[in-house]
Design a protein that fits this description.
Helix content is about 15%, strand content about 45%. By secondary structure, it is an alpha+beta fold. Strands 1, 2, 3, 4, 5, 6, 7, 8, 9 and 10 form a 10-stranded mixed β-sheet that branches.
């Protein structure tokens, strides 16, 4: 499998396969009316979920404190016709602030399956996910999302571009929402 293959590139969103099971998504967000670093927190995750109810069947976000949260997401059965199982994500998330970066690191919790997740749904097993928010100015942020799935989590090559389109739809909605805020 080729490395560093651009799977989706549209309107400033680039989704790339770095290596097998390792993907990267890049985009920027800008709004001259708000100070963006102040809104980069776990509430942004809630906004992502709320703006994409066509992608997520159910979401629970348990914010433990300003730097730690647990998220459970049941993704709608988007690829049922292709014979792929419904997926869910159950991740522990940690937030770090480093100079001009806000970083969210997450990893799947494989030791527990929430009782409300359907029995036949499979864990979207993430070995490491890092969302780096580079603060370019207080009104412009570059997002670099890197996801490394566990080796057991196989993304079929035919599904990679579809995943890119879904991620584009998810983040485009959030980007448009934030960029259109006027205060």
């Amino acid at each position: 499998m080729d490395s560093n293959v651009i799977l989706f590139n549209k309107e400033g969103f680039t989704f790339t396969r770095i290596t097998k099971n390792n993907y990267n998504l890049n985009f920027t967000m800008e709004n001259k009316y708000i100070i963006l670093p102040k809104i980069i927190d776990f509430n942004l995750m809630k906004l992502i979920y709320d703006l994409n109810t066509d992608v997520y069947e159910k979401v629970e976000l348990n914010v433990i404190n300003d730097y730690e949260a647990v998220s459970t997401m049941l993704i709608k059965h988007l690829f049922e016709d292709l014979g792929l199982p419904q997926r869910y994500s159950f991740i522990n998330i940690h937030k770090f602030i480093d100079d001009d970066k806000i970083i969210f690191k997450s990893k799947s919790n494989k030791n527990y399956k929430p009782s409300w997740i359907p029995e036949n749904a499979e864990l979207m097993s993430v070995n490491d996910s890092t969302v780096t928010c580079n603060v370019i100015t207080e009104h412009k942020i570059e997002f670099i999302v890197n996801i490394l799935f566990e080796p057991i989590m196989v993304v079929p090559p035919f599904a990679e571009k579809m995943v890119g389109m879904i991620l584009f739809k998810i983040f485009k909605r959030v980007k448009q929402f934030i960029e259109n805020i006027r205060m």
